[in-house]
Structure formats: structure tokens, C-alpha cells
Write a structure and sequence with these properties.
10 strands, TIM Barrel, 8 helices, alpha/beta
Length: 216
């Protein structure tokens, strides 16, 4: 099965249309973050999400860490998916599901060691999908994605092999390494931001090259 492709850091209606035109299955819309690229206003996220046709996924990237704040953020944007880029600090996933049951929850795991494998498999019992990225939430200023860096794919492969839910692979993907990433990890989906951009803007030539390499 060909991997689904999620283009992240969408910054405008025009970028959303461009990503979909090339075959994106999902769009990443970045809310307020402590660091990283692609941050846009909740109002713009709402506007883009409202215009994107089904069955395209619209992912709200939120750095909120409590069910109440996550739900509040979502209600400002009305995407069909919530991507949690940090861990829950209080409460549980059930509290989110209870209030917005139709919205899918994707938990980001920042793959740094064998402990990340254990974390991913434990959390997979409560969410709809996992997304494996290369951030570091332990830093003084948390890095929660958009690093453009590759992590240890052998750890990601372990998660994919044991997970009962879909797993997206992120972190430093581009046309030159995506085939190797697919072969080594076998993810359900791919997620990228900087790998298809030039001067922070979506680049049609890079999009074409990436989709060709990923889906050929």
C-alpha cells in the first residue's frame, strides 16, 4: 500500500490548494508553539479547514497539554484531526474524546531512544494514530517539530511493527531519502514540512519530486 502523505506547515489557502493538487492526503496547520516553523493564527486555521474538501485530513498542531485547553483550541479551528505535539500533563485522552468524539487524535512521539518505543506503544492504546518526529521536548525551549532532522529509523521501525494503529513518519524527509525511509520503516503515512519548501514557501518542483519518489 502506498503511504499517505501529509504536508505540514500550511500557511495559506493557496498552499493548501497546492498541496492537495499534488496529492496530499492531509494538511498540517500549526497553532501557537514555543518554537518551530509554520505557525499561523487560529482564525486562518479555521478558514483553511473549512475550505478543504473531504476526505482530506486537516490536522491542528497544538502544544496544549491539558484536555480542557486542547478542546478549547480545537473549538477555535474545527479541524477534523488534532495532532498533539507534546504529552498530556494532566487528565486523559478519554476526556477529549468525550467532548469531541468525531475528531481523530494523533499523538506525536519524539523518537530519541528505546524509551520512545515503549512510550509510543503505551500511548497507542488511547489515540487514533502516532506520528514519529525528531523534536526534543526536554529542552528549555521545547522543540516540538519542524526540525528538518532525521531520527533513528530503526526505532521507528520497531514502533511500526508493534503498533496496532497507523503510524506516520516525520523528521527530515525529502525526495532524496523518502524511498529509503519507506523501505526501512514501512509507515502508514509520511509527514514533512521543510523538505518541500524553498525560502519557507511550498515549492511545486520539490512537491512533484517528493510525490514521485514516495509513490513510484
Amino acid at each position: 500500500m502506498k503511504p499517505r502523505i501529509k504536508i505540514c506547515c500550511i500557511s495559506s489557502i493557496e498552499e493548501a490548494k497546492l498541496a492537495i493538487e499534488f496529492g496530499a492526503s492531509a494538511l498540517g496547520l500549526v497553532g501557537n508553539m514555543p518554537s518551530g516553523p509554520g505557525i499561523i493564527t487560529d482564525e486562518l486555521i479555521y478558514t483553511i479547514a473549512r475550505l478543504v474538501p473531504p476526505p482530506i485530513g486537516t490536522f491542528l498542531l497544538t502544544s496544549e497539554t491539558s484536555p480542557g485547553e486542547i478542546i478549547s483550541h480545537h473549538l477555535k479551528t474545527h479541524t477534523n484531526t488534532i495532532q498533539l505535539v507534546d504529552e498530556l500533563k494532566e487528565g486523559n485522552y478519554h476526556e477529549i474524546k468525550k467532548i469531541i468524539p468525531s475528531v481523530k487524535i494523533v499523538q506525536v512521539i519524539h523518537v530519541r531512544s528505546e524509551a520512545s518505543v515503549e512510550e509510543a506503544l503505551a500511548l497507542s492504546e488511547y489515540v487514533d494514530a502516532l506520528l514519529l518526529d525528531s523534536g526534543n521536548p526536554a529542552l528549555d525551549v521545547k522543540v516540538l517539530g519542524g526540525t528538518g532532522k532525521v531520527h533513528d529509523w530503526s526505532l521507528s521501525r520497531k514502533i511500526v511493527e508493534q503498533s496496532k494503529i497507523p503510524v506516520f513518519l516525520a523528521g527530515g524527509l525529502h525526495a532524496g531519502n523518502v524511498k529509503e525511509a519507506i523501505d526501512k520503516v514501512q509507515p502508514f503515512g509520511l509527514d514533512l514540512c521543510s523538505g518541500v519548501r524553498t525560502n519557507k514557501a511550498l515549492d511545486p518542483e520539490k512537491l512533484e519530486a517528493f510525490f514521485k519518489a514516495a509513490l513510484s
